[in-house]
Structure formats: structure tokens, C-alpha cells
Specification:
The structure is a homodimer. Chain A is an alpha/beta fold. Chain A contains twelve helices and 14 strands. At the A-B interface, strand 11, helix 9 and strand 12 of A face strand 11, helix 9 and strand 12 of B. Strand 11 of chain A pairs antiparallel with strand 11 of chain B, so a sheet runs across the interface. Chains A, B: It comes from Physcomitrium patens (Spreading-leaved earth moss). Chains A, B: It catalyses: a 2,3-saturated acyl-[ACP] + NADP(+) = a (2E)-enoyl-[ACP] + NADPH + H(+). Chains A, B: It is found in: Mitochondrion.
Amino acid sequence: MDGRELEDGEVCVKMLAAPINPSDINRIEGTYPMRPTVPAVGGTEGVGVVVAVTPGVRNLTIDDWVIPSHPHLGTWATHIAKEEGAWCKVGQDVPLEYAATISVNPCTALRMLTDFVDLEAGDVVVQNGATSMVGQCVIQLAHLRKIQTVNLVRDRSGVDEVKARLSSLGAEHVFTEEELGKLDMKNFLKEIGAGAKLGLNCVGGSTATAVMKLLGEGGTLVTYGGMSKKPIKLATGPLIFKDIQLRGFWLGKWKTKHSNEDFAAMTKYLLELVRDDKLRYITEKVPFEDFNHALDKAMGKHGSAPKQVLVFK
Amino acid sequence: MDGRELEDGEVCVKMLAAPINPSDINRIEGTYPMRPTVPAVGGTEGVGVVVAVTPGVRNLTIDDWVIPSHPHLGTWATHIAKEEGAWCKVGQDVPLEYAATISVNPCTALRMLTDFVDLEAGDVVVQNGATSMVGQCVIQLAHLRKIQTVNLVRDRSGVDEVKARLSSLGAEHVFTEEELGKLDMKNFLKEIGAGAKLGLNCVGGSTATAVMKLLGEGGTLVTYGGMSKKPIKLATGPLIFKDIQLRGFWLGKWKTKHSNEDFAAMTKYLLELVRDDKLRYITEKVPFEDFNHALDKAMGKHGSAPKQVLVFK
């Protein structure tokens, strides 16, 4: 907070919690296509409490919980002063860490399951990076609609535990890439009904190829990340003869085409699922003072780690 | 011809000419996904003349020129007996070699320019393999609609002649891959108006990547061949942040979704363009006796060669 007076129409929000997302790290690394003017504050989502309002403010009052009305830069801060429209009020009936993390990853999962292909009960979705927050949300949002998921996870120590956890969220099938390679693919595709209609890829490289192999005729692969930093290798045959499509998803682009009201409705729906215990995911709350350690964990320097959520005093 | 009697409703067609297409070769090699029961006759398109009809035949008479009503196997034959509906009558006001080659490559070019993105005058299409028959048709069909084309060709002896020929068909820009690499891409994209809406790929490998680089925001790459037999390498960034889409096109699939009437209307339109000298492409007529030599040429064993069209006595 720069200590300036609030302008009329602005509210001052004391931040309560904000996560470290992969895209936040990419922004700092300079590998994200949109670059802020530096110096800049990191973080694009989080939850805060209104601590001051100005006379022109109509829909927010002191003690309201708010999240950014669309993901924007600068949530790793103790206080933020912005016009009322930059905020979206949320209920206080969900844990802090869910309100802080609802607007990027769960929204991405919901949109990808909604905007690309018409999915009906019994249809199949296949994804890599299934332990990511998006991956966990995909499993549960699909399960709610009786859509089966086939989930690929990295081979790692404790992989059985990981599988059990994803199964408990509603995952029908969980494989490591190696297990998938040994599978009788023809039989498995028959078992799940002629292949997946939708594939979701946040990894790239051979893991993206593995997802594509599980797509059925006319299936769509949606890429929303490239964590391995390896390109997708794509044979021409499946494009031509199997009518496979490749698309990409970026929530930032979605936001430019939709109103704040659309965004508010989406986060409200997702937070209601959280409140009703139909959507859950693993986070680790970290005091803001331990930022450096949390950043290391978020960057994978200590192996697999849950989503790091900074908590402000 | 197996010497059998015609069944009622059938016509007997004496073939006049039939081309050797890459997909014909792939079928023989066994690399095409649909495999005929062997022994089988090659060739999927061509033109013939009706030499015998049966009482049940209503719309064809002796001396009519006909092409298969959709590409089907067995046109490398002197005579074919099939039911009337397997044939589509065509006018005799175009050269034989055009009637023989209208139903695969020109149709593919037309569909790809029509079915994937809405193109308006001034829009840009980029393609590799621009000297192929599809490539030549794309240039002219685009030119008719005032759509600019950017064309990539292999570096080869006589490349200047090739460029001049494509320009004479209406190509605005023709580059070898090497020339494209040296281009000031940012300026060039500005010059052609923010990049191509549609890219067409029949090669794969680095040449597919070159096409993708010329796509603008939201552009679509349509793959219809993989002549280099190399996969497409696809970075995840352009999918996510530039909203690039990858699709495939296969005329065989199109046919399963459309009627013989749709196909007849399409070939009629294209043959009218030929008659009006608005669509032309290079072919080489070869007597059927020289089949082996023509096949070698079609397989590229003698360098670049025009489309080989077998002519029957």
C-alpha cells in the first residue's frame, strides 16, 4: 500500500490469502506472453476483506470478503486499493484457502469441460497432470455430470496414495504413463466406449501424445499448459483420418470475451460446490513471512507439493 | 472387365483416363488406413465413356462421359460395370485430363477453403506443398475470391520458374522455406494484415511449423497430407495464447456426410471453372502401357513431376 488517499468509488481491501500459481512464476521468469511494467507486484488471485470504502461505493461494505473480479496482477500484497468494480463479493461460508484459489484453476477446469465439446453422461475425458489443481477439479466436475475420467499421473514415490486420492475424488481410471504403455489399448478403448471425446493437456511432450492416443474419432485435445516445456509431437494421420482437433485454452482470453457478471456467476457456482463438499482440493497454507520457502515448493524444488497459499496476518 | 453380363440398372463404362494420386500409392503401400480386400484394382478417380446400358438405367446413355459419383477404388481398368448411381455425368467441354482429375484434389482445395474458417476478400491463406495439384487449385480458388495466398515451395533446381508459374496462377507470395527463415517476420505479418486466418499443410515436419508461424491470432491449420512422413512439432504457447487450432481434412470423410448430389454440384462448379479457364493445373498424359514409368514418376523417383494421368486406348 502506497499510503495514498482513496479516490471516490474505491475500496481498500486487506488481503487475507493468495496462492502461488504456475503462471505467476512464468510471469516472474518472463516466459509469460503478457509482461507487466516493472516494478510490479506478483500474484493474480486471492481473497481479501474490505477495510475501507468511499461514499461512491454501492455494493460493498466493510468486512465483506472479495476476490478480484477477474484475475489481475498484484495480489501478493497486504492491502490493495481499487475501484469497486475490480472486486467480486464472495460468501464467508467456505474456507479461506478456497475463496483465495477459486478464480483461476477451478474456473479453467469448468470452462474446458463446457466450452469445447458437448459432453453427456457416460462420455469420457482424458487428462494428464491429473494431480494438479485443475486436474483435481476436472475429476470432480466431470463426476458430478457422470462423465468418466481417465487420468495420467507422473510415476513417483507414493504413487499408490496419489491414485487412491484421485479415486476418492471420483476418478474412474488412474494410470502412470508407463502403465498406459503396457495397456491393451484396443480393449481399453472398447471398455470406455470408443475413446475419449475430450483430452486435456497441461504437460506437452510424450504425455500429450499419450492423451491423444486415448481420444476417439473426432476427439478434441485442449492444451492449457506446457509444464514439461517440451513440444507436442503430432503425427498427421490422426488429424486427417481420425478427425482429431487440437485447441488451446487460456482463461485470460475467456475474460476478454465475457462480463464481470459471467465471471461472478461462475465463481459463485464453484464456491457453492465447495460449500456443499462437492469440490475439494489440496492446498498448503503458508504464512507470508515464509514466502521464499513457499516459492521454492511451488517451483517443485522439493518434489511434488500441494498448491501453496500465502496467508497474510 | 470380368466378361459377366450386366445386371439391370448397371452401365458399362470404358475408362478414358485416370490419374495416379499419392493416396493411390499409399493404398498400395499399405500405409493408408482403409485397406481393400486383395486382389484389388488401384485408382480412385478418372473419367470414362458409357458403352452399354441396361433397361433400368434412366439418366445415362451411350457416349455420355462419367466420373465416379464419389472416389472409389478400381479406376485403373479398361472397363467398369456398376449401377447407374455410382456414376456422375460430366460435360465434354473440358479436356479429358481435367475430367479425370477433378474429383479428388480440386475438391479437397475447395472444401478446405470453405469448411473451416470464414474467409473474406483480403484475408490470407498460407500453404506448404504449393506446387501440388491441391496447392495450385488453392491459389486459383482463393484468387477468385480475392483472398491472398502465401505459398511455400521446396528449394529445387528451377525454383524461379516454379515461382513464376504459381504467380501466374494468382499467388501473391511464394517463398522457399529458407527464404521464409530470412524474412523479417514481424514486418511481413504486418504487410499481409496480422497473419493468415487459414494454413494448409500437406507436408508435416518443419514445413508445417513454417506455416504455423504465419498464422494470425485465432488462425486454423488444416492438415490434409504428411508427405515428409515427419510429425508436426507443436509448441504449447501458440495453442494457449494465440488460440491457434489444428484440424485435419479428408475428402473420404466429407463424402460420408454428403450426398452424391452435393458431390455432383461441387464437381460441376469446378469443371465450369476449368471450361472458363479460371482453373488450370499441370498434368502429364501417359499411355496406360507406360504405367510402370508413370508410377515411378508419381512416386518422385525422377524428381518433381506433374500429375501423371493414365490414358487408355
